[in-house]
Specification:
The complex is a heterodimer of chains A (134) and B (57). Chain A is an all-alpha fold. Chain A is built from six helices and no strands. The longest helix of chain B is centred in the C-terminal third of the chain and has 26 residues, at 26-51. Chain B is elongated, with a radius of gyration of 14 Å.
């Protein structure tokens, strides 16, 4: 797929779906591949910090629950964390402790991190197709 | 950890994120960061006070 060339010297040959997939998988990677190094570093830092704080507060990486339609939306946001979600689950983290004082705040940080990463995927798309030039 | 501190941390992270997502240069980003940060942090405190007379049953 033809894409607008990157003025900052990024990798311009990756297919758009792959670029967006990588942007989802690793926070900041999409911007890094497009040559936006500073923004990539800031985005990765913000999302990783938010995610780690959420895990430390014993928040929950929510998955869909039967009879709870809102949990589907929460699961989409949680899955937005990409490899962080997979890594935390593999390490047995993110199960959430409802009685922990930080549980609700932990959920907020985890969901916020996931939604920010999903916004980054859209931003990578916009940059790649030329709708945004920075 | 203190809930207000967590609120401030969350507001800080979100404000940094949107400042870099939507603004191009440093000055614009700085101004936008403070706007978003203040709106989130102060807004949460204001909403908290407004909810104070209506505790959960």
């Amino acid at each position: 797929m033809a894409r607008k060339t990157d003025s900052e010297g990024g990798v311009g040959s990756l297919p758009l779906p792959l670029l967006m997939g990588l942007a989802w998988l690793v926070p900041g990677l999409g911007h890094l591949l497009l040559g936006r190094r500073l923004r990539a570093a800031v985005f990765a830092g913000v999302i990783v910090v938010a995610f780690v704080v959420g895990i430390l507060l014993r928040g929950e990486l929510i998955l869909p629950r039967p009879g709870d339609p809102l949990s589907v939306l929460a699961a989409i946001a949680a899955l937005g964390n990409g490899c962080l979600f997979v890594l935390a689950k593999a390490l047995g983290l993110g199960d959430g402790v409802v009685t922990a004082s930080g549980y609700e705040y932990g959920n907020t940080f985890l969901l916020t991190a996931g939604m920010m990463n999903l916004l980054l995927v859209l931003d990578v798309h916009d940059i790649a197709v030329g709708h945004k030039d920075f | 950890m203190d809930h207000f501190l967590l609120l401030v941390l969350d507001a800080f992270l979100i404000a940094v994120f949107f400042a870099f997502l939507w603004k191009r240069d440093g000055k614009e980003r700085w101004r936008y960061f403070w706007k978003v940060f203040a709106a989130l942090a102060l807004g949460a405190v204001v909403v908290g006070w407004l909810m104070y007379p209506f505790p959960r049953p």
